[in-house]
């Protein structure tokens, strides 16, 4: 997916958790390469996501959606609303990967319902574009378990998978490993090797820019913080400076 291929540097994005289009506009103006609207760890419904995606499109910033689960209906609806792709949590097996890719593609290559009178089809004015985009949707599996890491090459090889993404917090919890341990680093190296072999973009998420700079291996895209944490840290900095 081209949004994750920024020539000469890592693409920088952030999560959108706040249910206001103003947040999307501010993040776009800040210069992020892409945004990911977070339905998994934020109380965002489909209508709110639809509005956030509309703002992102108007601002010219690519926006993906992290869906809350592998539900085909949710994947289809956010793609119809104009999402550039989907991040899907807890994709642990090849069967999981095939299922979510199918949910994002039209028959005969998938099971997504066909309805071009939506934003992704320019409300019916661009039916060919809607059809073509449906065949090129990037589905990004989040690898968050030991099982998923072991199957990373096979998951990445599924046609329609657009990148590999490691959810470091969930992976650490699922494995019971310290994120600074050598064993945990070996798991991350396994995913990085799989992405390199398959020529897929590799992504992850961190809390701060310093953490992004300190990543020990190359990533094509990194999510740094989220709109709520960025607002909170900026507010704390102002208060601390004023006192």
Automatic annotation (TrEMBL):
Family matches, as SUPFAM superfamilies: Phosphoenolpyruvate/pyruvate domain
One Gene Ontology CC term in the entry: cytoplasm
Domain HpcH/HpaI aldolase/citrate lyase stretches: 12-182
Family affiliation: Belongs to the HpcH/HpaI aldolase family.
Top-level taxon in the UniProt lineage: Bacteria
Keyword annotations from UniProtKB, A to Z: Lyase, Metal-binding
Pfam families referenced in this protein's UniProt entry, alphabetically: HpcH_HpaI (PF03328)
GO molecular function: aldehyde-lyase activity; metal ion binding
The name this protein goes by in its record: 4-hydroxy-2-oxoheptanedioate aldolase
């Amino acid at each position: 997916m081209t949004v994750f291929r920024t020539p000469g540097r890592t693409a920088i994005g952030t999560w959108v958790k706040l249910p206001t289009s103003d947040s999307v506009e501010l993040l776009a103006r800040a210069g992020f390469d892409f945004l990911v609207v977070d339905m998994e760890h934020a109380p965002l419904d489909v209508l709110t996501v639809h509005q956030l995606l509309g703002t992102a499109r108007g601002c010219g910033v690519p926006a993906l959606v992290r869906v809350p689960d592998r539900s085909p209906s949710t994947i289809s609806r956010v793609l119809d609303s104009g999402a550039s792709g989907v991040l899907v949590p807890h994709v642990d097996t090849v069967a999981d990967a095939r299922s979510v890719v199918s949910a994002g593609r039209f028959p005969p290559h998938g099971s997504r319902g066909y309805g071009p009178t939506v934003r992704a089809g320019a409300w019916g004015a661009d039916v060919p574009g809607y059809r073509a985009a449906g065949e090129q949707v990037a589905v990004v599996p989040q690898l968050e378990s030991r099982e998923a890491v072991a199957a990373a090459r096979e998951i990445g090889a599924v046609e329609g998978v657009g990148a590999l993404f490691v959810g470091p917090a969930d992976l650490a919890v699922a494995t019971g490993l310290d994120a600074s341990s050598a064993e945990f680093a070996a798991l991350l190296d396994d995913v990085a090797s799989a992405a390199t072999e398959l020529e897929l973009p590799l992504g992850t998420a961190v809390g701060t820019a310093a953490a992004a700079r300190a990543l020990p291996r190359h990533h094509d895209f990194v999510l740094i913080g989220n709109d709520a944490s960025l607002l909170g840290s900026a507010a704390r900095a102002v208060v601390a400076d004023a006192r």
